[in-house]
Amino acid sequence: xxxxxxxxxxxxxxxxxxxxxxxxxxxxxxxxxxxxxxxxxxxxxxxxxxxxxxxxxxxxxxxxxxxxxxxxxxxxxxxxxxxxxxxxxxxxxxxxxxxxxxxxxxxxxxxxxxxxxxxxxxxxxxxxxxxxxxxxxxxxxxxxxxxxxxxxxxxxxxxxxxxxxxxxxxxxxxxxxxxxxxxxxxxxxxxxxxxxxxxxxxxxxxxxxxxxxxxxxxxxxxxxxxxxxxxxxxxxxxxxxxxxxxxxxxxxxxxxxxxxxxxxxxxxxxxxxxxxxxxxxxxxxxxxxxxxxxxxxx
Amino acid sequence: xxxxxxxxxxxxxxxxxxxxxxxxxxxxxxxxxxxxxxxxxxxxxxxxxxxxxxxxxxxxxxxxxxxxxxxxxxxxxxxxxxxxxxxxxxxxxxxxxxxxxxxxxxxxxxxxxxxxxxxxxxxxxxxxxxxxxxxxxxxxxxxxxxxxxxxxxxxxxxxxxxxxxxxxxxxxxxxxxxxxxxxxxxxxxxxxxxxxxxxxxxxxxxxxxxxxxxxxxxxxxxxxxxxxxxxxxxxxxxxxxxxxxxxxxxxxxxxxxxxxxxxxxxxxxxxxxxxxxxxxxxxxxxxxxxxxxxxxxx
Lengths: 298, 298
Fold this sequence. Notes:
Number of helices of chain B: 11
Structural class of chain B: alpha/beta
Low-confidence stretches of chain B: 1-15, 293-298
Strand order of the largest sheet of chain B: 6-2-1-7-8-10-9
Distance between the termini of chain B: 25 Å
Radius of gyration of chain B: 20 Å
CATH architecture of the largest domain in chain A: Orthogonal Bundle
CATH class of the largest domain in chain A: Mainly Alpha
Oligomer: heterodimer
Number of domains of chain B: 2
Strand content of chain A: under 5%
CATH superfamily of the largest domain in chain B: Vaccinia Virus protein VP39
CATH topology of the largest domain in chain B: Rossmann fold
Order of helices and strands of chain B: HHHHHEHEHEHEEHEHEHEEE
Strand content of chain B: 15-25%
Mean pLDDT of chain A: 87
Number of helices of chain A: 17
Largest sheet of chain A: none
Shape of chain A: globular
Number of domains of chain A: 2
Low-confidence stretches of chain A: none
Largest interface: A-B, 45 and 38 residues
């Protein structure tokens, strides 16, 4: 098989002829969410979500999950916003619209696996951020949800090469970005950077997408990138990875990301990693149930 | 522990007064015993509490929480509840992800470190082995590797417990259907023989295991156990108070070789007990290794 050169890959990504486009509702939703949460209006969020009926139905599914709140059963977007609050409902709406970006066609990576990892990582990142006193847990949620969009981009432009890298990672039990590097010289972080620019994601989200496997190299927003990097790693070691097990030993406190994050969050110095891991294990089943339900026709 | 200002993910889903009492009990158990009941086990915890409440004649979880905290019976009651939580957990191949991690990650690392030493002999210790299922499982695991990674190696499994009756059962090596429920046909056929309704452990498995009565709180006895590569201590330390736990952990630290591993039961943690051990993540499992240095400062 011909080895695709990295520059050619980047060119293909730039040309974007096969690149998935952002779901229609996500663009205004992300723009809307760039305002401070106190400036958002209930009706504005309800209107945005209700524009797309299937999105609204899927939002209700998530809103009724214990992972997102469910103080009582909700049956309309309006009552969900009132019951769960604006921030949580925005998280749900973005999650549902992002889930529509599933890998297309006969993808080597099951979309359920892909989104289980992303949604699990988002939930974990928000929890982790809150525990260590990180300034913006909601931002951590959104960034984690999007952190692997480079995989979708790579799949769109070089599906065969990606399939080969995925198979190498799966059979050798190594991290996916390492296999991508050896197989075609471009990680999903790099391809994600291109797509993040194209989609005009906020700079901190783009930094996470591009640098979550090397947070120390991020030019800005390094703490957020490091937080997502650690959450991503913990997910991959806790049965919420890319559909295979990475056969290795990881010490989170020895990771470069740990050093980076510690500078901003001193609580990390005496952090109960075991408890965070157990909490993550506690919602694996629900994440699986939610994402699987999402891909079943309503 | 979780502070009220920073509610855990799962607590958001638990709105009723009894559910929040249950979370309080769960957090108390983790704080005192170091074992966590994740979200998906909360209903099970409720059943265990209900059983104890019936025995005590207590009608609400709030009252039961008082029994576990302020009443004179609190220590005895905590032990009874822990017994309920861990009841029926003893069986062959109890925690498959942990066993896979030992075989695929821990063992290669131990062998690599051991290769610098002249003696090709492994020492594994099942501390608190109860009726013997755990040390026999470890023996089977190592025998499975005897033609592969452990070719030209020998190994021994030290199995200790405080309870003489449990040790007598273990030495006999005869197990009923409940203990053997996780055995695959392959292992059943290869390492067991049928004796009526029961299964008898094969002599080659038993030959590698030596059973001894050891009190983990007996300092003089613990001091003389040396040169251990791996310690398994599952659902034992949860019954110790913090001071005794610290002492046992200090002994474990000294019992282990420099490259040694300490593995605890599922959802058990050493947080707040030892700074000498460092938590590491294995695929779907955690373990403790001897820390060469304290956590890194930035």
